[in-house]
Amino acid sequence: xxELNPGSGGSxxxxxxxxxxxxxxxxxxxxxxDLAFLLLTxxxxxxxxxxxxxxxxxxxxxxxxxVVIEPMKVNGYTFxxxxxxxxxWYNGEFKAEPKNGMPATVLNEVKFGEDLNKLLLDKNDMxxxxxxxxxxxxxxxxxxxxxxxELAIKAQSxxxxxxFVIKADDKAVYRNLIDIIDEFNICNIGxxxxxxxxxxxxxxxxxxxx
Length: 210
Prior knowledge:
Layout: E1 2-6, E2 23-27, H1 30-46, E3 76-81, E4 87-91, E5 108-110, H2 114-123, H3 125-139, H4 145-156, E6 163-168, H5 174-186, E7 192-194, H6 199-209
Parallel strand pairs: 3-6, 6-7
Antiparallel strand pairs: 1-2, 3-4, 4-5
């Protein structure tokens, strides 16, 4: 706080007039220090510290030696990542050659970005429409956030929803895996897994990239 210390009393001039008193100004900085600590404490307590972000990835359980692995159902899609940010996909069970009247597997290439997003939305159309309707109900206050989240998870795990598999060769980069999983989340795909690429797929991928 500021203090005003009066100086010596007024003095008389020779002509008999009284001179004004002089005051010495002194500023006490102690309250400013207290205020600085109060502000510092306030910002520390009210600030939000950055939290580590994690991404959930579903990995299949390794099968036992005596367990026969069933072929992929028709309602499934496999995406294979490789070098130069290239991604290939095919539908259903992998077939190195025609089987049961069905043609051999052919790899289709799709580019990251708008093309991949459009493809995923098209293949996951049923779930995407259901979640879109749920969002409208949430916005109109027909359902609350907790109910919306519960119903959205139920829609993504529906047995009729397609299943997606991600594979990669030894030339793919980890960033592409993160990118495609991000696209899955954007397109409301809840059923997917990351597995190892098989020899037949490697041979087909080699032909497609040469």
